[in-house]
Structure formats: structure tokens, C-alpha cells
Amino acid sequence: MTDQIEDTFFEDYLSFEKFPNSLYYIAPGFDFEPLWRMSHLCDTFFYANLYYTLDKVQTSIYNQLQNSKNVEIVSLEIDERFDETTHFDLHPNFRKHFKEASSLLSPTEQRGYINTFVPALHESQWMITVKLRRKSTDRIITLFYFTGEGLASYVALSKNGASAPRVICTIQSGILERPNGLMSRLLNSFEKKPLLWIRGFEETSDKWLYSDAFNEDNLYNHVGLDFIHEWIVPASYLGFYEDAPSRRFCKGFITQQTFDENLQIPKVNVNNHVIHFNGIENIQWRNNNDHRSALFIFKNVYAPFETILDKCDDVSFWEECLYPSFRKDSSKECIDFLRKIDSLNKYKEIHFIPFGMEDEGKLYQDFFNENHNAQFHMYLHRPMDFYDLKPGQ
After folding, report:
1. Which of 236, 223, 160 is nearest to 197 (CA)?
2. Contact between residue 41 and residue 23 where contact means Cβ atoms under 8 Å apart
3. 204: which residues sit within 8 A by CB, 6+ positions away?
4. What is the rounded distance in angstroms from the CA atom of residue 338 to the CA atom of residue 367?
């Protein structure tokens, strides 16, 4: 492949136009969980990382994705001559933008930044491009994993905040996920801001050092998304656990503006079934002898038990209904069970809190478009739950 063809190829793939539909992950390590959690919001995933060799990352990609139950590798390409100045769609004033962004750093942060990243200046640069199919939803997504400093690459790809990814992810960097810190200041200075900021930390014996990731941030001040399924990486980002699988605790945060906009959409109707976006706390039932209703919830349901028990005929817990096969990440198991209950023709209404991966709302929408005996009501707790099911998304 000639340099001209190669440059054209990368200009197409790392263009400014792709950034608004992307997830941008700073220091991802070997964490590929977002690929099967955020495919409903993003079709492109930018992973900016330093200090890992090409062989090590390529091996991790094959080990995790080649036989994954969640994704299928469609194609994989490697470029060992990656360089931001030729492969990014840069703004003519990108050097000035870097200087402006660096002014947001305190003197202490600037010293830490230099000490951390200057040694990487002589590291070889490369990029792995992986096209994937999300199995359960049949979506096609693309992963760009490249060697690059995360903040500088963000400034470059966004053209100094003129655009923003839909999702930004900072987990266990030790610095960026801290609220009201460097990342928050950078995002606040930009015109365009991500819809969702995923922050988190790894479970360690020193967990208290990193738990401030969930503290209140002045800009992203609402929890928009919980992750109820285990978020596991095969190797820790922390050096002393490098070869051991690690569990991560993550939440997705949104701004006040996004929170207020979501309140304007309390529910939508799909083929005479109802999706409720403001939780189950205000559930109402038409409860009489001729109109029986059923509710399927988790044992840690958000509304008080006594409130629900007073309003419905039959309450069941997912953990008990599907024991011992119950898995919170299996939308198919939930939907298959609901079909079975509906086939009994016992209930006029079936109310439920769904489970499954965060990007599988489409499966429930397809389910509602089938013919059913009962009317289904699905309740979502957080503003960003199954966000793609909201009008206009």
C-alpha cells in the first residue's frame, strides 16, 4: 500500500465527522467491555493508550474478542507507522489548541503530566483497526486502538472541543475520573460536551484511594446509568495486579441539561405496550377481579416493597423465577420468560423491570412489536437506560 493510499484510508476513518458518534476511552488498557455495552450509542470506539506493545494488545484483542459471546471479529488491520499528524484530521491551529488546553493544568498537574508522558515520546506508534459485529443486536461497530496520549488526542480529534464523542470513558487512570478535576475542567472549557461520562475504579485492597470517582462533579452532576452486570478486565491496569482479572465499578454521569431534557419524555408507546423512563416508583394498576396484573422485579427493587404489594395481584422476583440459570446480562432469558408468561393468558397487564446488557434495548422493542395477549409495561430506572428507545435517538 502506498503512502498516498494509506493516508487517504486513515483520513476517512479518523475523520472529524466520526467523532460525534464515538466512544472515546483514555488509557483503556485491556478493557473491551464498552464494545458490548455502548453499541446503541456509538458505532466507533477510539482507544488512546501508551506503554503497551503492539503484540501485547493484539494478543489481548484475540484472546477476548475472537471467541467472545458478545462480539464477532469481522476484520482486523494493523498499521505500524501510525502518526497523529498524518492520520488525524487535524485543525490548522492544533498546536495552539494544545497550548490552550495545557493552560488548564495546575503547575503540579503539569509536572505530573510531563513526568508521566515524556518517556513515551520515543515509544513506537501503531494502530489496530477492528471491525466487529455485536452479536445480539447485529450492529456493526469499529474499534481504533492506537498509541497516543489521551488528552492531547482528544483535543486533536475534537478540534479543540468543536465536536465531542457521545461517550467518554475514564476508569482507573488515577487522575482523570476524579470529579471537578482535570478532565472536568477540560470538558467544561469546550463548546461541545459528551452526552455521557463513564467514571470508575478497580476493586483493590486500597479501593478507598479511587472511590472518589463517584463523588459529585459540578458539571456531570447526575448519575445517568448504572452498570448492574460485572465489569471485568482480564488484567488490571494497576501494576501489582497486572496478570490477574480485575472487577471494575463504573457509573455513567450526565449534565443537568441532559437530565432535564430526559424528564420531558416520561414514557413512549410501542405497539400498545408502554416503556416508562422515570422508574417504577409511581406505578399504577387497574386492579380488579376482571383485570389481573403481574410484576417481575429484582429483590433490590428501587421502590419500597409495601408500596408495590398494595398495588398488584402477583409480584415475582427474577432471581427466583429463573433460578438457577438467572443471569442479569441475558436479555434473551428475560424475553423468553415473558413470552412464556404471556402464553398462559392469565394476565391483562405484565409489568417488569428488564435486565440485559445496556445496549440491548432494541431486543425489547422488537419483542413489543410481536403479537401478545397482555399489555406489557417496562420500567427503566436511570435517565440513560436503553437511551436509544427514546424518540429522536
Report:
1. 223
2. yes
3. 210, 236, 238, 241, 246
4. 10
Using DSSP bridges, classify how beta strands 222-226 and 196-202 pair: parallel, antiparallel or unpaired. unpaired
Confidence of residue 278 (pLDDT cuts 50, 70, 90): confident
Distance CA 232, CA 244 (A): 11
Domain map of the chain by residue range?
3-260, 265-389
Over residues 114-133, the pLDDT tens digits come to 666 777 777 788 999 999 99
Distance CA 20, CA 162 (A): 10
Bridge partner residues of 222 (DSSP): 254
What the block records as the C-alpha cell of 366 is 422488537
Looking at the chain, how many residues does it have?
A: 393
Q: Which pLDDT belongs to residue 284? A: 66
Q: Describe the chain by its helix, strand, coil percentages, rounded to 5.
A: 35, 25, 45
- For residue 198, the cross-strand partners are 169, 252
pLDDT in tens, 17-71: 788 999 999 999 999 999 999 999 999 999 999 888 899 999 999 999 999 999 9
